[in-house]
């Protein structure tokens, strides 16, 4: 059975998201920012503004200035 290249790209994005969530859970504000931006821009599939705002709020509460665009949407 041959698996299409798109499957690997989807798995890479999913793994990246899981890795970022793990880092954010351990206190990485940069990871939380990246998750927020990824959801905002649709990097992890379709855009998800609810999840983008959730992660942006988390990052902002911990001192991030980079997520203001997401919080203002």
How would you characterize the overall build of this protein?
This protein has 73 residues and is mainly alpha-helical. It has one domain. It contains four helices and no strands. The longest helix has 21 residues, at 5-25. The radius of gyration is 13 Å and the shape is flat. The protein starts with a helix and ends with a helix.
Q: How many discrete domains?
A: 1
The amount of beta strand, in percent, is: under 5%
Radius of gyration: 13 Å
Q: Give the number of helices.
A: 4
Low-confidence stretches: none
Distance between the termini: 44 Å
Mean pLDDT: 87
Secondary structure tally: strands: 0
Largest sheet report = none
SSE pattern, N- to C-terminal: HHHH
What topology emerges from the helices and strands here?
Elements: H1 5-25, H2 29-41, H3 49-61, H4 68-71
Helix pairs in contact: 1-2, 2-3
């Amino acid at each position: 059975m041959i698996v299409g290249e798109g499957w690997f790209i989807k798995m890479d994005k999913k793994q990246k998201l899981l890795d970022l969530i793990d880092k954010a859970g351990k206190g990485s504000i940069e990871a939380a920012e990246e998750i927020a931006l990824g959801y905002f821009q649709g990097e992890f599939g379709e855009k998800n503004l609810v999840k983008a705002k959730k992660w942006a709020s988390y990052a902002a509460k911990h001192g991030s200035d980079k997520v203001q665009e997401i919080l203002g949407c």
